[in-house]
Each structure stands twice: as structure tokens, then as C-alpha cells.
Amino acid sequence: MRVLAVMIFLLFVGCKPTKTENYNHQNKSISVINYEANARNFVLNIKVENQMLFVSRARDVKDYQEKITVSDADWKEIVALIKAVDLAKVKEFKGPTEKRFYDGAPHANITFISEGIAYTTKGFDHEFPPVEVEKLVTKILKLTEK
Q1: What is the Cα–Cα distance from 14 to 9, expressed in whole angstroms?
Q2: DSSP-derived 3-state class of residue 117
Q3: CA dist list (Å): 75 to 50, 59, 70, 80
């Protein structure tokens, strides 16, 4: 009988919803964005953090080669675009094209890091991001053009 009582107690105590299930993912603050695009002859890694863009265009590099300071106006636009991203749905984002399957475009991913948790999209074609993050990706890529 005691075993049954302990099992019932553990069942009720162990079934509490987790913090992430009750949290509105859209209102979390995104501290870092990582954009990666790779192909056989192309590599682009961009890290967006604290009004800076860190860019690497080479494979197997430990540190970023370029550091770009973002203007206040551009940063405000990036922050507004970031706030529009629903982190709970990031895994469901789907790119409009599939050229990466036949080497027609580099394979790309974007990862949002919020409160130590990484939210990564499914792969998509570089320069053809999912509609939900299209303006954000386009803005970031435009700022890194040489």
C-alpha cells in the first residue's frame, strides 16, 4: 500500500509543466544570432551580438576575420525584426526554394540564442530564407557585403 501511495505522489509531483511550456517564446530576449551558409566552395559565418557583426568567410577558422559595427539606425531595425520572430515556431520555418539539394545554392541555417537556449531553423538556401526571417536575413547579409 505504501508503494502505491509513493507512486501516486511521484506521478502528481513529477507531472508539473516545465518552465518552457508556460513561457511565451516570442517575448524572450534574443542575445545572439548565428547565420551559417556552406557549400563546397563557399563559407559564410555571421554572428550578430551587441550592435556588432562578426564575419568569417573561411573554413576551419577559430575566430572571425571581420568585425563590423552596426549603426544605431540599422541596429534599431535589426532589433525590431528580431522581436517579430516567434522562437516556438523557428523549427517549423521552411525555405521557399530547395536549390541546395543539387548544389544550386549554399546550405544555410540561422540560430537564435535566447537565455542560453539555441533555436535553429531547418536548413534553407542561402539568400532564400524562410519568409518569417527573410527581412532579418536580408538586412544582416546586406550589412556584411564588401
Answers
A1: 8
A2: strand
A3: 9, 28, 6, 9
Return phi, psi of residue 104, to 5°.
-85, -15
Amino acid at 75: W
CA separation for the pair 62, 120 (Å, rounded): 21
Q: What is the pTM (predicted TM-score) of this model?
A: 0.78
- Chain position carrying cell 568567410: 57
The DSSP bridge pattern shows strands 42-49 and 124-125 to be: unpaired
Cα 129 off chain centre by: 12
Rounded Cα distance between 78 and 76, Å, is 5
pLDDT of 139 = 96
Question: For the stretch 105-120, what's the b/e string if a residue is b when 16 or more beta carbons lie within 10 angstroms of its beta carbon?
Answer: bbbbbbebbbeeeebe
86-139 pLDDT, tens per residue?
999 999 998 988 989 888 899 999 999 999 999 999 999 999 999 999 999 999
Residues in the chain: 146
